[in-house]
Amino acid sequence: MTRTKAAAWVGGACYLLMVSVLVGAAPRASGTVHGVGALLAVSLLAGMVRRMPPAALAMALFGSTAVVVGRPSPAQESLAASYQGQFLAYLAVDLVLGFLVATCARRASVIAVAVSFAVQLLVIGGFAHGDAMTVNAVIALLATAASGMAGLLIRERREHAVALRAQEVGEAVTAERLRIARELHDMVAHSIGIIAIQAGVGGRVIRTQPEEAREALRAIEATSRETLSGLRRTLVSLRQADRGATPSEPSPLAPSPGLADLEQLAAATADAGVRVELRRSGEQRPVPADIDLSAYRIVQEALTNVVRHAGTGRCRVTIGYGDEELSVEVVDEGRGTGGTGNGSAHGFGIIGMRERAGLLHGRFSAGPRPEGGFRVAAGLPLPAPAPAGVPVGAR
């Protein structure tokens, strides 16, 4: 920072040196040459303009005024014509003024515009004569207004870009929070539902059927450990994303669950007292990871609702591999209500499933069946299969 400031001050000193050369070392040059020279010399103030705009404006005002006030040679042209050309030097001030308006606070910008125009008006009034004074005053006013408007436009564009960026960041944060909420809900709700049912079973049979009670406790222990492991993986993932994991660090995360884990999910649900009939139709094939995870979570949440609210001992899960869509259907013959899983005031199960399908541009429906029971159905679009003979790496 100190080095850049020193470089900016060196540029300012070089600017003043060039102004002194224009005023003192070239007395026979015309006023137009002096004005254009001062306009070009302002480029030496680039470093100062970026870091100290008020100081740069003051230096540009001083240098331009010195060029205007410096006496030209009467032998070259009339005094009035010489001053008309020298007023071009104030265009350099307008350039610095536009940058100041674009970057500095509004109060400082207003003061800078007022001081700059007042100095130009006083110098024009003192050194211009007749019609030249009116013309130069109007030109100074228009140039100052143009630089101020350009600065305001740049400022508004930058502020708009910052606001859009903040909105995008806020939307990304909200989307990530919803994603984490869905993952935690789908992972924890199913496990807690199984634990609650097994605990109830164990409490009822602990005196009359100790072996059944021990099996319930084993199921509670296994489900609790699995849930704790999943929560730990999620927290580790969030911490790594926060601090930025290095490539050399081994990843402790297990693969995300998918359709291949439905048998294990069905077994865990059977331990909770609901037998799951798992059916698959169509040509089974790997599907994209996001579709694989979303389909698993939809089935998991639907089974959680069956265990907790349906009041039945069995249900059916059907996975259909279509050409354009992966269909998921969970049907039971229970009470025909989604209970708290319906996304009512007490839960967010159906809401989460609908959001998962919506994020993949799929379809989702859930509701009681006319013949009794409850049905959850989702269709997740699949990417078009690659033509035969195309290598996997080229898809």
UniProtKB/TrEMBL annotation:
Its EC number is 2.7.13.3. Residues 239-258 are annotated as: Disordered. Residues 295-383 form the Histidine kinase/HSP90-like ATPase domain. GO terms for molecular function: kinase activity. It is an enzyme of class 2 (transferase). It catalyses: ATP + protein L-histidine = ADP + protein N-phospho-L-histidine. The keyword Transferase applies. The chain crosses the membrane at residues 7-26, 32-49, 56-75, 87-105, 110-128, 134-154. Residues 176-242 form the Signal transduction histidine kinase subgroup 3 dimerisation and phosphoacceptor domain. It comes from Streptomyces hiroshimensis. This is histidine kinase. InterPro entries: HATPase_C_sf (IPR036890), HATPase_dom (IPR003594), Sensor_HK_TwoCompSys (IPR050482), Sig_transdc_His_kin_sub3_dim/P (IPR011712). Keywords: ATP-binding, Kinase, Membrane, Nucleotide-binding, Phosphoprotein, Transferase, Transmembrane, Transmembrane helix, Two-component regulatory system.
